[in-house]
Amino acid sequence: MTNAQDSTEPTAPADTGRAPSRRSLLGWGGAGLALGAAAAGGAVAMTRTGDDVDPAGSGTSGAVPFHGAHQAGIATAVQDRLHFAAFDVKTDDREAFVRLLKDWTRAASRMTAGHAVGDGAYGGLAEAPPDDTGEALGLSPSRLTLTIGFGPSLFEKFDLADRRPEALVDLPQFPGDNLDKARSNGDLCIQACADDPQVAVHAIRNLARIGFGTVAIRWSQLGFGKTSSTTPDAQTPRNLMGFKDGTRNIAGTETDRLKKFVWVGDGDGTDWMTGGSYLVARRIRMNIETWDRTSLQEQEDVFGRDKGEGAPVGKAKEHDEPFLKAMKPDAHVRLAHPDANHGATILRRGYSFTDGTDGLGRLEAGLFFLAYQRDVRKGFIPVQRNLSRSDALNEYIQHVSSAVFAVPPGVRDRDDWWGRTLFSEEA
Known about the structure:
Low-confidence stretches: 1-58
Shape: globular
Number of helices: 10
Number of strands: 11
Radius of gyration: 22 Å
């Protein structure tokens, strides 16, 4: 991790002999709601401490540093749960939107450290709604990360067309796409990942609450059971088709590959994006019932790997270098491999999803695909073009929603905020 923690304690208010009001105590608000120091109880001490203090040790209960050169939630070790939300902006007031970004940043830094938002869920003014919804009280940070991205339409709403990166292209219509417009695109997105689903849901819920009147959720997706890993030394996760997924994914420790394929570099055309990345989100519906009636041999031929070990065709171990010509010409691994796409490489952070049934007794289930890359034109687009033309897996899946976002660089310190590099000259 390149992120650094800042554990400076805030100054306590002077004793005036009477309890200060919530807003006079905090001195700043967001979309009509104030944020500030927290007060809560439980396994994590949510008291008035610094925003980035790690309050709960390590492992799956610890806090991931919020500040750093890159946003957390990209190269970070992939957590078990996801709540992803795309938002529409409901105002043309750029100053109001910038205020929201600042307030969101403050709230995000607190929640990722395991603190409540503002005065917390209780103990504040009885006549006002609480500053925190409260369902995360007593829960650890669970390695919560919050990652923001800006969609192409945001640049139109705030007359920022000249600052839209060339790499932030509208995705083409790929063969087989059956996209639901109501569940696609968005002016911006927030990706919440955590090892506890309630912690992830709490984060999105509170950001949506803070943004009421300025932004509104356009669509959202819950995910579980990570289908890709940025920690290759750990066991490779499996997707809902039962196959190991993301064997060759970029590791969070591979700084050279991250620099080459994920992080936007100096001279890439848009200075404000340096240190950022580009995100493609695709909701992929799986035809589970058809797949479950397919023979094991055909399933393995479709992927180009065996189902047990995950070894490529003709090899013994999962991480053995694949011999692509030994696979069928339409095998998924063969067509997705960098060697079949002029070296195109992406970092995947996908999750499985199940959303009940479709009314015909079929599971509404599949993969919520998340891919980060340095340039969408050189990453996702050429790979998906190759797959959409002839991948044998297409018989069993369908892409039903799609979005692309510019993910700005990280929040470097307490004076920084989400999107500052984009808006600072304009705000």
